[in-house]
Amino acid sequence: MKIQLASSYGFCFGVKRAIEIAEEHKGSVTYGPLIHNKDEINRLKVGFDIGLAENLNDIQTDDAVVIRTHGIPKNELEVLNTQDHKVIDATCPYVTTPQNIVEKMSDDGYSIVIFGDASHPEIKGVVSYAKYQDDAFIVLEPEELDDLPLRGKVAVVSQTTKKPEDFAKIVAALMLTRKEIRVFNTICNATFENQDAAAELAKDADVMVVIGGKHSSNTKQLHSICQRDCANSYLIENETELDASWFDGKTFCGISAGASTPDWIVQNVIDSIQEMKQ
Amino acid sequence: MKIQLASSYGFCFGVKRAIEIAEEHKGSVTYGPLIHNKDEINRLKVGFDIGLAENLNDIQTDDAVVIRTHGIPKNELEVLNTQDHKVIDATCPYVTTPQNIVEKMSDDGYSIVIFGDASHPEIKGVVSYAKYQDDAFIVLEPEELDDLPLRGKVAVVSQTTKKPEDFAKIVAALMLTRKEIRVFNTICNATFENQDAAAELAKDADVMVVIGGKHSSNTKQLHSICQRDCANSYLIENETELDASWFDGKTFCGISAGASTPDWIVQNVIDSIQEMKQ
């Protein structure tokens, strides 16, 4: 049986980069989990002595602190710097961009609109860079714009993981009532690249295995995309969940993985499938 | 019978202003017709000795030249200034705005996209203000954007008379492929104000009279909007076309007028209806 990986799968550029940065700083602590995958966090702990601090207060005086891909609010960064920690910034460059845009545009007199989830760490960080916090607004739906005390000049950015079509709806609503809007398309394609590659592969494969957290919306979406074109699509967290009967009579197995699935788990799955078919 | 004018009708702010400017400059010539209404152009000729030059070459050395609301291309303005004409600028301020935006944004390194009709005098003027003519593009449909060699930074303006919903489609298409777009909503509400006011009045009136050119798309649209709510809606060019039978048994006559219809024609129509009903 042919086994083929999707042309894009698993960790995005920013997460790969953050893990490499952490590995280069043995003994550091990450402020918040570097990735939503316990096995990978455990690997970093065992192999590189990387600790985890869920709160600012949990960070010890002599800790070197890794900032994760989502970034953190500006005032928290200032606290860390004041406390003389060694700060290792692994904020994804695709997140630094909207942080910088919000800071500059707010300073230039634009009202700020951020399309995203107010509770998401990335957005908490991005909005914190507005110079005028009472002139920066986070919205998820166009209707939320109606009651905002926006100026005639508005700058708008998006959470990196949002859908472009939904961002376009926010922009369409804004542009009809404002004299000038500056639209910065800060959406990152990584999520969609994995989805497009999985869909492409599912057309040819007669069995698809998607690897990732059962509760990860990202992984579940990959799975449902594969199911559209390949009825025999399975979602597993690791190789222990494989069932040899899935591959009976099959000739082409496609593999994809969610954005929080490390490569070594993907490789374990591929090895196990190959053993089953020997 | 009650006769009521729509709360907004006829000339827009820019045209009213241009006619006042022309009246203040007796003996001048307008470069292009000031308005698409022969009766009004004749009134200006007879009452104020305002001439009409259709082409640059038709303008005599000693003519004072009125620039109409649409504006003119920058190079033509330079020619007029070089020839030492007295130039009287009646360009609508709502048109000067996109001219200035295009000039500044082009100078600041943005590709320029103009949503409008390439053959419309307003757009010929607006596009001429781009510093880099090979980096300024006029489009009517989102699909036309696909093949344009646009930079990552794009500034976009609209012809003043376009529909906001259609402009939004251009913006939506642009924002999905560009890093930054600056959207300047340069649409003027005047057309829509006349339409909204006519629709409002047509709900209450049992007969509607719309005054304007039979070939004016603006006037025809007003007429069809009125017909939606008032079956007895009539389109006339002036009072000679009125028919007394239209008002038999009617109690409330609403009046609207296209954007090229001068107030004095509207008043003639009202006077004639009142005479018919005496």
From TrEMBL, chains A, B:
Amino-acid positions noted as binding isopentenyl diphosphate in the UniProt annotation, renumbered to this chain: 36, 70, 120, 216-218, 260
Transmembrane segments: none
Positions bound to [4Fe-4S] cluster: 12, 92, 188
Binding residues for (2E)-4-hydroxy-3-methylbut-2-enyl diphosphate: 36, 70, 120, 160, 216-218, 260
Cofactor(s) needed: [4Fe-4S] cluster
GO MF terms, alphabetically ordered: 4 iron, 4 sulfur cluster binding; 4-hydroxy-3-methylbut-2-enyl diphosphate reductase activity; metal ion binding
Keywords attached to this entry: 4Fe-4S, Iron, Iron-sulfur, Isoprene biosynthesis, Metal-binding, Oxidoreductase
UniProt pathway: Isoprenoid biosynthesis; isopentenyl diphosphate biosynthesis via DXP pathway; isopentenyl diphosphate from 1-deoxy-D-xylulose 5-phosphate: step 6/6; Isoprenoid biosynthesis; dimethylallyl diphosphate biosynthesis; dimethylallyl diphosphate from (2E)-4-hydroxy-3-methylbutenyl diphosphate: step 1/1
Annotated cofactor note: Binds 1 [4Fe-4S] cluster per subunit.
Residues that hold dimethylallyl diphosphate according to the record: 36, 70, 120, 216-218, 260
Catalysed reactions listed for this entry: isopentenyl diphosphate + 2 oxidized [2Fe-2S]-[ferredoxin] + H2O = (2E)-4-hydroxy-3-methylbut-2-enyl diphosphate + 2 reduced [2Fe-2S]-[ferredoxin] + 2 H(+); dimethylallyl diphosphate + 2 oxidized [2Fe-2S]-[ferredoxin] + H2O = (2E)-4-hydroxy-3-methylbut-2-enyl diphosphate + 2 reduced [2Fe-2S]-[ferredoxin] + 2 H(+)
Pfam families with a match to the protein in the record: LYTB
Active site: 122 (proton donor)
Role played: Catalyzes the conversion of 1-hydroxy-2-methyl-2-(E)-butenyl 4-diphosphate (HMBPP) into a mixture of isopentenyl diphosphate (IPP) and dimethylallyl diphosphate (DMAPP). Acts in the terminal step of the DOXP/MEP pathway for isoprenoid precursor biosynthesis.
Family, as annotated: Belongs to the IspH family.
Protein name per Swiss-Prot or TrEMBL: 4-hydroxy-3-methylbut-2-enyl diphosphate reductase
Organism of provenance: uncultured Sulfurovum sp
Lineage per the UniProt record: Bacteria, Pseudomonadati, Campylobacterota, Epsilonproteobacteria, Campylobacterales
Recorded name of the encoding gene: ispH
